[in-house]
């Protein structure tokens, strides 16, 4: 039996290294390709919302970056491509999606600049109703922030200021949740 367990555990470890890890039934890849680069997984975790004190699991988030990012300061200085992926664990109607994005910008965004409101409203207006298992992806490539829904490009917002603003929602002084920020910044 021991002879079988060692090879089986080794194969499981190898599969996780190649295909990633599973969180709440969501397969998180160890690497993604973006802008001609292979981005390793920086960290991943679950967004938990407390409703009347009860934990509600909303989405699995993963951050892939061209180099290790372990703090907010490192993240904001990072120039290489990055990808933040949100895979939703429950469905949400259009009104709930819009309200959630608006609230998150209001509560968690710690970076503002001239023209912020226009960029914020453009971003919020791009996202539509979600089915369970839907993905929203934020890609940072050069000066562009590309926003995807289920693999479809919704729009692009230019400028490092917007990148700092949107990333501050997960990595700033008032993140979505401190636990998720820690998980995304990795070990």
Q: What does the model show?
A:
The chain is α+β, with helices and mostly antiparallel strands and 187 residues long. It is 37% helix and 34% strand. It has a single domain (21-185), classed as Chalcone isomerase. It is built from six helices and nine strands, in the order αβββββαβααβββαα. The chain has a seven-stranded antiparallel β-sheet with strand order 3-4-5-6-7-8-9. The protein has a two-stranded antiparallel ribbon with strand order 1-2. α3 (94-108) packs antiparallel against α4 (116-126) and α3 crosses α5 (160-171). The chain is globular and about 40 Å long.
Task: Give a short synopsis of this structure.
The protein has 6 helices and 9 strands, in the order H-E-E-E-E-E-H-E-H-H-E-E-E-H-H. It is an alpha+beta fold and about 190 residues long.
Q: Count helical runs.
A: 6
CATH class: Alpha Beta
Helix content: 25-40%
Main sheet specs: 7 strands, antiparallel
Q: Distance between termini? A: 34 Å
Q: From the alpha carbons, calculate the radius of gyration and give it in angstroms.
A: 17 Å
CATH architecture: 3-Layer(bba) Sandwich
Q: How many separate domains make up the residues? A: 1
How many beta-strand runs? 9
How do the strands line up in the largest sheet? Answer: 3-4-5-6-7-8-9
Structure class = alpha+beta
Strand content: 25-35%
Rounded mean pLDDT is: 90
Name its key features.
9 strands; alpha+beta; Chalcone isomerase; single chain; globular; 7-stranded antiparallel β-sheet; two-stranded antiparallel sheet; 187 residues; 6 helices
